[in-house]
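Could you help me review a protein record that somebody else here produced? This is what I was given.
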Amino acid sequence: MINISLVKPPDLRPNGQKMLRESSRKFNQFFKKSNALTR
């Protein structure tokens, strides 16, 4: 499931860049967890 707010360019909001970094960090953590589970 992809969050629609991630698809928008980050410069639409003043804190867009920060939010994008935060969500990508969370996504990376989740991805690593699921990778460890499927291994």
Q: What stands out?
A: The radius of gyration is 12 Å. The mean pLDDT is 73.
